[in-house]
Amino acid sequence: MSDTAMNEVEIDDNVLASKASQRYAEGQNVMLSKAHRTPQRSKDPGAVGERGREMMRGTFESEQLLYSFAPKSIPKPLSWGTYQKEPDRHFYICDFHDMTDDLPDIQKFCAVVAKIHLDTMGKSPTGNYGFHITTHLAYVDNDNSWSSSWEEWYARALKRMLAEEEKSHGPDEELKVLTTAMFEKVIPRLLRPLESDGRQIQPCLIHSDLWPGNVKPDAVTDEPIIFDSCAFWGHNEGQPVYRLSTR
Length: 247
Prior knowledge:
Elements: H1 3-8, H2 13-16, H3 19-25, E1 30-37, H4 50-69, E2 77-82, E3 89-95, H5 106-120, E4 136-137, E5 140-141, H6 150-169, H7 173-191, E6 204-206, E7 215-217, E8 224-226, E9 232-234
Antiparallel strand pairs: 1-3, 2-3, 4-5, 6-9, 7-8
Helix pairs in contact: 6-7
C-alpha cells in the first residue's frame, strides 16, 4: 500500500492493528489483495458474512503454507480478518510485489511449481490427501476432508464442483451421462492403479488454481510470482495448470 493510499484512504482499525501496519511502518509496501462482502442470501440467512470470512482465512492459510516452501515466489502473507466498521466485510493482506501483466517465462514457472511439489512430497501433516481448512475456487468452497485414497479424494472434490455447477445452471441430462461414466469408469481406471498392487504415491502441496491471472512476472526480477492459491495436499499431477497463453 503506497504512501498516497495510506494518506488518502481511511484505514479500518482492524487493518491498522494487523501485521501489515507494522510492515508499512518499517518501510515495506503491502497489498490489501482481497476484500470481499458476502452476498445476502435470503434462503440461508445463517451464511451471511461467513463465506467471505472463510475465503480470507483459507487464502491466508493456503498462501502461508506455500510461502514456507517458496518464499521467493509467493507474496508473504501478513494478516487476514474482519473490518471493525463493516463486520460482514473481510480482508487478506500480503507483501506487495510490482508485477507486469505479461506471461511468465514458461521454464521458470514450471521450475517453481515442480520444486514446490518435490520439496513437499510426503510432508502432508496427516499423511493423507486434503487440507486442514476449507479453501475456495472463486466462490466455490472445496471439500478438503482428509482421505487416505487419492481416488476417493479426487472423486469427492469433483462431485462437489459438479454439484455447484448444477446449483447454478440447473440439471443437464447430457452432463449427467458424462459424469456417471467419469465416476464409474474413468476415475477408477486412471487413479486406482496408482495405489493398487503395492504401488504408492505421496501427497505433495498443490496450488490448485494456476492460470495466467494468478501467475505474473515480477517487474524488477522477472521471476514468476504465484498467488491466490487454494492449496491442498494431493497428487502432483492433480495440479490443474491452465494454458499460459493470451486469449
